[in-house]
Amino acid sequence: MPTKNHNGRCPTAGGARPQAWVARRLAFVVLPLCLGLTFWLPNIGGCQALNLPRDAAAAVVDDEVPKCPVQPPARAPSVVWQPETNSTWLDESAARLGAAVRIRTVSYDDMDLDPTREERFKPLVDFHAFLAETFPLFHSVANLTKVNTYGLLYEWTGSDPSLKPALYQGHQDVVPVPEDTVSRWSHEPFSGEYDRETGLVWGRGSSDDKNMLISIFEAFEQLQSEGFRPRRTILLSSGFDEEIGGQRGAGTLLVEMLRRYGNSGERGNGNSTTDKPLEFIIDEGGLGIGTTQQGRLDVALPAVGEKGYADMRIDIETEGGHSSIPPDHTAIGMLSEMLVDLEKNPFEPSLSTRNPVLTHLICLADALDEQELRGGGGADGDDQAETYEGFVLDRALRKQLRRPDQWPQAARRIAKDGTRTERFVIQTSQAIDVITGGVKANALPESASATINYRVSVDATVQQVVDKVEGLVARVARRHNLELSVDGPEKANSSDASEPARRDAPSEGKQASGGKVKLTVIQSTEPTPVSPVTSSQFGMLASTIRHVFPGRGQEGQNGADEKGKGNATGSDRIVTPGVMAGNTDLRRYSDLSTNIWRFHPNTFMMNSGKHTVDERMDIRAHAKTTRFIHALVRNTDGPI
Ligand SMILES: [Zn+2]
């Protein structure tokens, strides 16, 4: 039975050489972290000597107000490259991205599990040829392995085997364009057309995820042309079925990477906080960069965790018959009661130290308080220049965030007044998506069923969701004398699994004459472990983000002169952790690294048409992504 993984360890490893920004905080946070955050920082070495009983660690977990990570100074790479200022490069890059879009690497739900038996994967052959042709320098130095036919795993071997590899990832496939939406596109969906005036590249995949993949290749090609020879091994992996679950692509790439790098016992440099084989992994996702709090704060939101997932189905079976002599409630009526009950009782929003969104909110609260102390920003901000339609943290809420006993009220307020995006990173969502039942107007339905999708909050478990749904369904089942059973992978693997169902079944001797109701967990995935924001690796990510995206107060000052003017740290950008409400290929990769980041540095105010009509990419934003990858490789090419 998968549950939250916690092992009583804290993130300050013995023998670690933390960055200065981490070191500054250690005195204050070592003990609270060991005591308080073990639950949400799984599998991190160190502090084992404390040997806390699990219950003791869990008992205090929600009593510590997390601290916003100290914002590290912006860090320029050893070679600063600014492709976004080079118009020739922008034209060439737009041509590359356009060409990638024109190769229709579309994933369909009904594709064969064996890619060699599926014709519709064939465009990937052209895509691979395009990559080899377009990025010859990188292909001349990296070893390429094709995994499960179309998965790509490149290794650019570093000179220092004591440094763990870093993994950069982007997927090759795109979602289909439904025939009936083609006429609504401003440009043909697979044209890859570039409008120089607006700076937009159009077409399916231009912002999900061929831009990220091309950015990685462009950055690596540039590095090779600069004569860069990595000390740290660099990996590039690319799945080909991310949009339909990732089983064939990421699933097999994971196996290959574990096989190749998994036994890292000898690889450790005494500088590591974990025995997982990769130093860090970066892939698509997150909310990117942008401005929030009515224009008062510039933020970056790499996602450090993903919510869990569960599809559940309720099936009711009753006796049929002629509808001229019906019972008071048909199968459809009883199912409706259950669904109404479910919607009347949504999951509670919650803020806890196991959810990094709390840290994010504290970061915003600190920054707003500081701004007001300095007399900047005004009461609640009046800068309308670049408004993000999000929840504004007023003073009352900021106070609540610093009082653990008031987190439930704060969570409810955010859920009520915030956007849906803000709400569902602190709440398990529930959506009744499919309903069937009945065949004829004059016949009683013999069965009715509904399928419900849940996205499980990072501080909850699939089992908690199953239990709650089961409790509500059982209530209606009792009312109508239905016999309840629960089925699914979660229940099947649990020794005490059937207990609640038995508890709720009609007592012996009493006829369950009303019929049967069955609750099935069709598929489920637990929330991912949450990557730490206090690690030196996250610190390096933040330093690099703060260099490439310094914020409005610092824009234009981070070119050749990287000292940073007007701000001691060289950047106004607040790097703060987020959570993904959806899932990516990375949900499979928890065994590969402790530091897993979903970060695609586009502005989160830019509607780029992902998965819908008029998908497009701003070529300058794309260039900044490429620049960011280039800077991250250089900044992490040594002990971190
Ligand atoms: Zn994607």
From TrEMBL:
| Sequence intervals crossing the membrane | 21-41
Answer whether the UniProt record assigns the keyword Transmembrane helix to this protein: yes
- Sites binding Zn(2+) 2 sit at 171, 208, 283
GO CC terms, sorted:
fungal-type vacuole lumen
State the SUPFAM superfamilies in the record. Bacterial exopeptidase dimerisation domain (SSF55031), Zn-dependent exopeptidases (SSF53187)
- The Peptidase M20 dimerisation domain extends over 304-479
- Region listing for Disordered, in residue ranges: 484-535, 550-574
- Output the Gene Ontology terms for molecular function: metal ion binding; metallocarboxypeptidase activity
Q: Which CDD domains match?
A: M20_yscS
Keyword Transcription attached: no
Q: Which Gene3D superfamilies match?
A: 1.10.150.900, 3.30.70.360, Zn peptidases
- Indicate the family of this protein: Belongs to the peptidase M20A family.
User: Under what name is this protein listed?
Assistant: Peptidase M20 dimerisation domain-containing protein
What is the species listed in this Swiss-Prot or TrEMBL entry?
Pseudozyma flocculosa
Taxonomic path:
Eukaryota, Fungi, Dikarya, Basidiomycota, Ustilaginomycotina
